[in-house]
Amino acid sequence: MSETRKRKTKNIPNNSISDKDKTKEGETKTVSPKSNIPLRVFSRAVVIFSLLIIVYFTSNDGAFKIFAKQNEVISGKGQIVECSSAYLREIDKFEGCFPKQCKRFVTDKVITDKEADELLMIAKKGLKYGGSSGGASILDLHSGALSMGQHFINFYKRSEGRNVFTEKDFTTYKVVKDKIKYSIGHYFGVNPEKIYLTHPTFFSEITSKEAVTVHDEYWHPHVDKETYKSFHYTTLLYLTDYNIDFKGGRFVFIDEKYNRTIEPRKGRVSMFTSGKENLHYVEKVTSGTRYAVTISFTCDKQYAIGDPDIRKFNNDL
Fold it and tell me: Which of UniProt's keywords are assigned here (predicted)?
């Protein structure tokens, strides 16, 4: 704390000084600083109290606000945010794709438990043939990309990939994708026929293993539109439960006053506009395994990708 500056001694004209204030002839007595003590004490008290307030709110969870708890079933919950200017300029080029508001939205009523369980089974069937050396692995059904050690392989090109996925698996994936796509149309006020599935769209498996490569460092704050040029709407479907199947791993939106967290719940869908208005990160998983699927959409048809299907899978093999 900076020290309070001492007041300079003031000379007061002789004719304004009483006999009690005089010492020697022609000299005056310095005014006592004691009259300023109450003000100085009050100022110090205010500073100390302010510091205590700052320490309190920066040393506990007061900087976070839970947006969606794992143990609650949410029909629909949204938060409107101010669109970034860059996002608006770009998306304005595409007819039928401009949102009523930029926002983030969470719902537990779009995907059924059965569909979530089937997707989790698909993820585990593929991921068991790979796995990152670090704590984050991905499986992309569209391209066949699968984490393997410190690299990625095309699972569809490998003999062990034969007969792993079935036509029913790909049908389930497509049904879920379509339900999420039409949910974006409904909740963001856009034409669902004007948004297209885009790359990358993938399953993720996150554990508490230490990162080995940059691909394992999933916890850094980022903006999806800056990471992936094609993204305009991002969605996440959680396949396991926070604090049951794993600990840590909450999804965090970074806002000016405090951060908002989403606790993963099986079948929960989180969707948001992909611009700077939704800066976010994922907390480090401290135990267990966190499964989710990222399903991304673009307004630019040149970046559209088709649904994965059994024919492409068999042809690649």
Answer: Dioxygenase, Iron, Membrane, Metal-binding, Oxidoreductase, Transmembrane, Transmembrane helix
Angle, CA of 143, 239 and 267, to the nearest 5°:
115
- pTM, full prediction: 0.80
Spell out the residues 6+ positions from residue 309 whose beta carbon is closer than 8 angstroms to its own: 167, 170
Which residue is it, tokens 């839970």? Answer: 66
What's the average model confidence in pLDDT over 2-11?
40
Look at the alpha carbons of 229, 234, 236, 242 in this order and tell me if their dihedral is positive or negative. Answer: positive
Catalytic amino acids? 290
Structure confidence at residue 305 (pLDDT): 97
Which pLDDT score, from 0 to 100, does residue 310 have? 80
Residue matched to tokens 């040029």: 229
**How many structural domains is the chain composed of?**
1
Is a pLDDT exceeding 80 seen at residue 156? yes
- For residue 37, give the amino acid letter: I
For 153-188, give one letter per residue: b (16+ CB within 10 A) or e.
bebbebeebeebbeeebbebbeebbeebbebbbebb
What DSSP state is assigned to residue 67? E
Let me know if residue 36 belongs to a domain.
no
pLDDT band at 159 (very low <50, low <70, confident <90, very high): confident
Distance CA 77, CA 100 (A): 16
* 76: in domain: yes
Residue 286 lies in a domain: yes
Q: How far apart are CA 216 and CA 234, in angstroms?
A: 20
Question: What token pair was written down for 312?
Answer: 């492409």
Q: Which value, in Å, is the radius of gyration of the alpha carbons in the chain?
A: 30
Could you tell me the CATH number of the domain that includes residue 83?
A: 2.60.120.620
For residue 242, the enclosing domain spans 65-303
Within a domain: 58? no
